[in-house]
Amino acid sequence: MNEQQFDKFLNIETTGFQYGFPKLAKYHRYEPTPYSGLEQLFEVYALPPGANFLDIGCGKGRVPIYVHHRFDIPAIGIEMDPKFFIEAEHNAAQYLKKAGKKRSSLQFYNMVAETYQIQGKDQVFFFFNPFSIHVFREFMSKILKSYEQYTRTIDIVLYYPSPDYLHYLHQDLGLDYYLNIKLRNEKNENERIIIFRLQP
């Protein structure tokens, strides 16, 4: 299925017009994650058992809704732009209307990522370069603190990873790649998904 067909299947609208650039330079412009990339990710990546999935900078909610539909696990989207947040909430309502009752929760929060209080059950964090390395470091420090408090498997999933993100995780934190997924039919070597894993 193409992007529009996938949206129609999920009963959502995440393609089309994207709003202008954020007012603060440390936050990056929203761009929806291609469904083809999500399909390839989950061909080779198995979520940790009992995982909660979070999309940091979720835009119109495509990734959390896709994950919720595919796995019926708790999915959270964090979005600072109020217009995108409203669209994500609308998309969730439309999706659930078609999908019917699901076992797991689907939630969206309108806030900057740094203010989100990480829960002991939050395990999978998805990033499509939502903000500068400075904000990413700040958010990662919260993840590491949560990991120390509630030791569990935590996966950091980076779509089209920023070199700054990779350097920080690999060189500064000393983390090794758990998975390095080269996306098919892409000529740009950066068009890949890299996962870092923290585990007891």
Account of the 3D structure:
The structure is a single chain. Helices cover 36% and strands 20% of the residues. With 200 residues, it is of the alpha/beta class. Strands 3-2-1-4-5-7-6 form a 7-stranded mixed sheet, covered by helices on one side. The radius of gyration is 16 Å and the shape is globular.
Topology:
Layout: H1 3-10, H2 35-44, E1 52-56, H3 62-71, E2 75-79, H4 82-99, E3 106-110, E4 122-127, H5 133-149, E5 154-159, H6 163-172, E6 177-182, E7 192-198
Parallel strand pairs: 1-2, 1-4, 2-3, 4-5
Antiparallel strand pairs: 5-7, 6-7
Helix percent reads 25-40%
Strand order of the largest sheet: 3-2-1-4-5-7-6
Helix-strand makeup class: alpha/beta
Rg estimate, integer Å: 16 Å
Summed up, the helix count is 6
Q: Using the alpha-carbon principal axes, give the shape.
A: globular
Largest sheet: 7 strands, mixed
Question: What's a quick, concise take on this entry?
Answer:
This protein is of the alpha/beta class and 200 residues long.
Notable characteristics:
200 residues; alpha/beta; 7-stranded mixed beta sheet; 7 strands; globular
